[in-house]
Amino acid sequence: MASKNVKIIAAVLIIAIVAIAAYLAVAYGAPTTVADGDNVSVYYTGAFTNGTVFNTNVGGQPLNFTVGANEVIEGFDQGVIGMSVGQNKTITVPPDQGYGVVNPALIVSVPMTAFGNASIANGMIVTASDGQEGVVESFNTTNAIVDFNPPLAGQTLVFNIKVVVIKR
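Predicted structure:
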C-alpha cells in the first residue's frame, strides 16, 4: 500500500513540476510575436513597386532594431508587429510611412560658383556646407539644380521581411 502511495505522490509531483515549467516557459520564455518595444533581428529585401531591388541583407547580417524606437522607417517598424520567429511577410510602405513625400523646397538652384573648379554631372552626389547630401538633377553654365530630398523620398517601397530573433 505504501509503495502505491509513493507512486501516486511521485506522479503528482512530476505533473506539478511539468505544469510549473510550462507556465514559466510561457510567462518568461521567448516572446511568440513581435510587440512594440521588442528588440528584433530580421532579414529583408527592399524593392520598388516595379520589382527592382534597392537593398537587401539576405545572406549577410540580420538587421537589429527596437520596435517603436524610430530606428527604422515607420512602415517597416509597424510591419513587423505581430510577426513570429521564422515568419516571412511582404509589406508595402507608402512614402508618408517611408522616407517622406518629395519636398519641392529641397530642390534648389545652386550657383555654379559654389562648386569651385569641380566638374559637375547629372546624377552626381554633392555635399552642402552643412553636410547634407544632394543629387545634381541638371545644370547649365550658371546654375545647378540639386535635389536634397532623401534618395527614396516619394517612393512606395515593398519589403519582404523574415523575423529571426525576438527579445523582450
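Summary: Residues 1-30 form one domain.
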